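Example (one chain per record):
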Amino acid sequence: MDDPADNKPPTLWQVLHSVMAAAFGVQSAKNRARDFTHGKPAHFLVLGLLFTGVFAMTLYGIVTLVLHLAGL
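Predicted structure:
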């Protein structure tokens, strides 16, 4: 992975990885340091909200499918 000492902002893929890792509570200290020193809060906020929406809709879809298959 990239060195946190770089002055480059994290890429979209790195921000998405950080958001997903933070959602599940497994963010590494190295990535967290990179995010806080070089990341823009707006990018994490937008991707965090999108991730939460997709996650909630996925859970809703799974529950709906299970209930449909159960005949309820």
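Caption: The helical segments are 12-24, 29-38, 41-70.
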